[in-house]
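Worked example 2:
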Amino acid sequence: MPRQKGSKNAVRTKKANIDYAAIVAEKTAAKEQIETEIAALSDNISVLKEQLKSKKSALKVAVKELSKAEAKKVAAEKKAAEESKKAEAESVLKKLLATMPRSATPIATACGMSSSRR
């Protein structure tokens, strides 16, 4: 038989009576509290998901409107540039017609470049 280890004169303590019902009740209450917090967080997440969805759709609409506005702006700038070039060309043509001798003027009118015509 092997030898026992440790002191043979160890004081043996009597285990205290543990109230398992109280521990179970405490753990049950903690579990229920955590479950209610999880439910509240789940509801909050659902609300936030709906808000995110609505914000994303609003963003999509805003992006579409922005792209339409930018396209209109580019078209307006292009039209203004064309009108500017046309006005400049007409002014150059008027200056040219004004400096031309009278004998060359019928050629310009025959080609449809009359100063009375715009």
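Residues 52 and 58 are 10 Å apart (CA to CA). The chain has a mean pLDDT of 85.
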